[in-house]
Amino acid sequence: MGMAGTQSTGEVAQEKVGVLLLNLGGPETLADVRPFLYNLFADPDIIRLPAAVAWLQRPIALLISSLRAPKSAAAYESIGGGSPLRQITDDQARALKKSLATVGQPVEVYVGMRYWYPFTEEAVAEIKRDRISKLVVLPLYPQFSISTSGSSLRLLEKLFRDDQYLLSMPHTVIPSWYQRPGYVRAMADLIQAERNRAFAEPEKAVIFFSAHGVPVSYVEEAGDPYKEEMEQCIDLIMAELRRRDVDNPFKLAYQSRVGPVEWLQPYTDTTIEELGAAGVKNLLAVPISFVSEHIETLEEIDMEYRELAQQSGITNWGRVPALNTNSVFIDDLAQAVMEAMPYLGVMAARSETTSLVPSGSVEQLLEVYDRERMELPPPVSVWEWGFTKSAETWNGRFAMLAVFILLVLEVATGSGVLHQMGAL
What we know:
By secondary structure, this protein is an alpha/beta fold. 45% of the residues lie in helices and 12% in strands.
């Protein structure tokens, strides 16, 4: 089971190992913006509606995408007319394949995007067509959140459950990897280099980590480990920098928030204003949630937040580049894939209670979440799946009145869920 090809004259068929990279996706042209936004808002992990009104998901997505498309298109036009995310992710896939080949592990690497081409469904079709016999799933989000990795993995699980080939194919998931030494070292390398390049007095710069935000209820009610993982990630990076005698002050803040819903604080924009008011003149922005350049780094940070910093009295600005195909980062991802191989397993037969992805029951996810070390365990073969009381509570918060308030604020203020996901 799970072997590609057939046996002949005593020869065992060659195993074919695949790696599936999961990411958000982005419109490549201005004409792609509105359909991309529709796909984004049609995701029930972005706008969660009570079951009784779930039929409104698509009409709401159509409304928001139509209203937001002009402003979003203008943002994409300001960075060249489209998102570079697909090209960069393809480059990362090629680099990862090459890195694994150098350590004697031939693989095929696939890219599956959640909201734009190549969609996850297309990647899965390629995996089947190539007769991949073992698969490692690697979301390109260093920290786990139910709104990013969780959404991608939820879709992937549905595709697996509906297909006998996929059900019987040994596979595993690397749910988060922010604590990996290569990732930490690569981030420290980039921060140190930009600090020394951008400032005449590097020791006076404040290292400003800006992470994408999530609603507080994700963390406090749904049990999302994102905040804990993010804080631990920053601690690891700063510890690495201090080992290099880089002892700058630092700050973590969260980009984006929407209407009446409280989001993780402190907020990036207000924190920049506060730092300026406190007399900070040198600010080094670090896009900590992102491993590739896209709209949220190129437009939101480089344009909006840089302008806000200047208006707030911060005269010297630097921005650490995204990892993209950084060799230390890519080689560490390759090592993560190698370390995941012993955990390959098959999904139980069509079961409603078992899964290979930690995307259904956050309560079960947290049962294996190491709160003392603030990290997820190594990849495992079976995770619990199913609706939970906390999930029902979370859904209940999105009553129709709140939904429409959010929509009005999204349209009126130009900030919100779309802002969070990097679509503006």
